[in-house]
Amino acid sequence: MAEFGMYAYQEEVVERALKGENVIIWLPTGGGKTRAAVYVAKKHLETTPKAKVMVLVNKVHLVDQHYNKEFEPFLHNRYQLAKVSGDSEEKDFFGKVVMSKDLIICTAQILYNAMINTEESKHVELSDITLLIIDECHHTHKESVYNKIMRCYVEKKLLGQKPLPQILGLTASPGTGGTRTLDCAVEHVLQICANLDSVIVSTKNYVPELKKNVPRPIKSFDIVEKRDADPFGDHLKWMMKQIHEYMNLPHDVELRECGTQEYEADVVILEQRGVKENNRCLAQCAIHLRQYNDALLINDTLRMMDAYRSLEEYYNTKTAMAFDGTDFLLLGLFQENQVELKNLATNPVYENPKMAKLESVLLNQFTPGVQSKGILFSKTRKSIHCLHDWVTKNMVLQGAGIKADILTGAGNGNTHMTQNEQSNTIRNFRKGSLNLLISTSVAEEGLDIPECNLVVRYGLLTNEIAQQQASGRARARDSQYSVVAQAGGRELRRERINEFLEELTQEAIAKVQSMSDGEFYKKRIELQTEDVIFSKTSQDRKTEKKSRFAASNIKILCRSCFKPVASGSDVKLLEKSHYVNVNPDFKEFYRQGGRVLLQKRFEDWEPGCTVICNNGNCNKDWGFEMKYKESNLLPNLAIKNFALETPDGRMTVKKWKDVPFMVDEFSFEEYCCNNMPDLFD
Fold first, then answer.
1. In what order do the strands lie in the sheet with 218-224?
2. What pTM value is reported for the model?
3. How far apart are the C-alpha atoms of 175 and 325, rounded to whole Å?
4. Most buried residue, 188, 452, 503, 558, by CB count within 10 Å?
5. Has UniProt tagged this entry with the keyword Acetylation (predicted)?
């Protein structure tokens, strides 16, 4: 193991895996789980006839990282390796890639798609794999893609079907599953073990070595007293009260405190109720109240001007979408108060004291001539952009030598980053041209980020797993882990709870590890059997729900103006993921917006323009056109932007999988017959 630079604690945790057992390796962030997995993969390839190793990750950027940093350097001389993600052309013939390579690193979704695809060039069976490595395996629960794969595995195992791959899971913490008692935490850890058909192992004999190599940071709670006065926030609440009075709140509705997550949940439900009851006034007022509540949350965490700008940007888009009297009133309310809000937001007397405390925390670590590296974690993409703007415009922080940039998840939105942008940012951080990353949770889990001597959690409410992973980023000697929070606030309470849950997780794992083999295996089989039965029952219920109504009996309405625009039977499922309207008359109800630009390239289609409701001034965004097979424009619709009129009343759903009718598969031949009959004369 010398050429791998393996520590004794790593050698200890791979012992059972090297004997062919299914194992979950539990080591803290920075403990070298992936390096241990590379070693197991190497030994497996050397000793197993017709070996085929597959490494699953849950984020696209981890495909390249694991390939370039870990597996390729140690294995490429003797073995054929491949990396495949949704961005790779290889996904289109994944079955052939698997057959021709010794080790494949891919996102879990790629494998699952291949398992359910019947095309020979794309299909993969679990029996084709001899070792399945699952990174961040604590995500193997409920309906995650990891668990869908492992449920197939468990079903085959319970039926006695062989061969099946050996399983190797990697995690920094399985967590407690949201529970707060030891018995329930033990049950959660056992469920993760059952889902992965594995035992959970950790170092017992080399704990001091592990602690030496993965030092814990010095934790500090940097507490801020509540603002003495908040006239900007008070004025927002006064405006929200005006909307409450205008909307004539139903008697059975009691909204909780403004400026909280609970209030946000209340107005989300209120909007849904407005849609269901054909009460557009109620629905639209609820949408605007959510924006004001967002501004209050931003005001609590960031600068007053950040909160003001969030409202200003929102109402700039609403000017062209005033559809009826309710819209004009809500737009007018903001415009009448806009000058007053801006004046209050620019008054430094009432600025958020958390920002001054954050400045102090950063200055304690960053001084001219001192080599420091830090990560500042915040909740949303919007908040990290605001924090980046603050850091770059703060002359004191710039004078301290802070060179900051943002790090967000990969995606196609304006505030997302491409994989290349992520890689460049981390590369610049590693070589020192950047010394502060301002990041969402993307940097908590998995990303290969160099050792930091400062980690700050700012305005965050997360679980104990995320807290441990963020803390694990501060790996330098005598590093600092700071929680900036208001005295008695929610963040402080949550951080304290997470500390308790971290200890509870350790106790639960110890209890599971102390079970006798017989007791553990009996419990594991019991949980696996229960899960398979529950899954099948749940699937039957979903199928029954899907068949509740005929598609032709469903009217699809614009969620904003409530105009009926389609029938359920107009919608077809294209390539198992896109819900397109094939009725040529649908064109009458929408107009084209701007071009849609996606980072990925697709085999049979490319994006066109956005699709927008053309009923008066509604302008509700519905989705975008797909140019399919180079010539056919198919509107690809997001169901969250619509309401459904069913024989039992009106309803809303977030995702197409929740609609109460069956959506037929798209047939290109049938579509051409109906829409281009000349081709078939």
1. 218-224, 480-486, 454-458, 374-377, 436-439, 404-407
2. 0.89
3. 50
4. 452
5. no
